Amino acid sequence: MAWFDETSGEDRLLRLENKATEIRKLLLGALLLAKGVWRDDLEQKAAGLEVLRAIEEAEEDFVNSSITDRFEKLEDLLDMISKRAKGIFLLMEYISKGKQN
Predict the structure, then answer these.
(1) What DSSP state is assigned to residue 68?
(2) Please, what's the b/e burial string for 54-92 (b: 16 or more CB within 10 A of its CB; e: otherwise)?
(3) Separation of alpha carbons 39 and 61, rounded Å
(4) Could you give the CA distance from residue 49 to residue 53 in angstroms, rounded to a whole number?
(5) In angstroms, what is the C-alpha Rg of the chain?
(6) Which of 51-55, 61-65, 95-99 has the highest mean pLDDT?
(7) pTM of whole model > 0.85?
(8) pLDDT (0 to 100) of residue 30
(9) pLDDT band at 5, cuts 50/70/90?
(10) How far apart are CA 13 and CA 73, in angstroms?
(11) What distance in Å separates the CA atoms of residue 88 and residue 97, rounded to the nearest whole number?
């Protein structure tokens, strides 16, 4: 990206942290919407309850505000993004399998 050429490493890291934070928030919104729409269906089967638990666990995860190292903070954000994305994937997989039956 062109803006990387003219910015310091600190500024670049801050932009990456901000992007990761935005993605984390968007994924939380997607999880909340999905859970609201599919909750009744998920509660009907054991596999659905597992997906619901994974979604709720990803929802409840939070950023560790005690982390001061910038790279550790970014890694923490990425771990949370991964959990939330996995929750969405599990839900989509569950829905897809249900549609096939």
Answers:
(1) -
(2) bbeebbebeeeeeeeeeeebbebbeebbebbbebbebbe
(3) 19
(4) 6
(5) 17
(6) 51-55
(7) no
(8) 95
(9) low
(10) 10
(11) 14
